[in-house]
Amino acid sequence: MTCDDLIWLFPTPMYITKYENSFDEECEFIKNLPENVEQKVDSSLIPQTENTFVLEYPELNNIKSFIEKNVDKFVKEILQSTDDFMITQSWVNKAYGGQYHPDHHHPNSVVSGVWYVSVDEDSSPIQFRNIKHSDIGLNFKEINPFNGTYYNQKVSSGTLLLFPSSLPHGVPQNTKKTERISLSFNTWFKGSFGSRKYLTYVPQN
Fold it and tell me: Which residue, among 11, 37, 15, has the nearest Cα to 187 in the 3D structure?
């Protein structure tokens, strides 16, 4: 190491890939899933489906297998973990014109993800917030990964994003009249996890 080295301390990974096969039938099935009527009280918020285990539908088996394969790749190859993960809950978000999703994170989950079913190329991005953001407001001549507060990721139909569940994210107001449909999900460990050696072991049946 020289005195001029720059070290990236504890960067946050976000994995992006795409479902390359046709999913017209799955898209049509997802579009017809009933929404949660209780969430329609506030018409400015993005409603979710009534069912929060949508990847259990046999009609979505191919999509579920694709997601599981990439969750395993993210955990094993990027996080370098030997643990196995499973999808816990999964639901569909349907954003209409003028609707948005405020900043949030996903408790009781390790890796979360979003698979985009139907979005316009110029649709609202998903927006991630820097959890290490400082309360001191400096002036910047250019925004970069070290000083940015938000990161906007443009997406397209078929795109899959995976990221730590603790990372705050949201969706700015949908300015398009067409639906912006996405499928979100959480994950948890399969079986027992942690280390007996380092006293972090959690047994599960």
Answer: 15
- pTM, rounded to two decimals: 0.90
Give 76 or 43, the one with higher predicted confidence: 76
pLDDT in tens, 156-190: 999 999 999 999 999 988 877 788 999 999 999 99
Asked whether residue 81 is assigned to any structural domain, the reply reads yes
- Distance, CA of 201 to CA of 39 (rounded, Å): 38
Domain annotation covers residue 195? no
How many separate domains does the chain show?
Answer: 1
Lateral strand order in the sheet of 111-118: 15-18, 159-164, 111-118, 180-189, 85-95
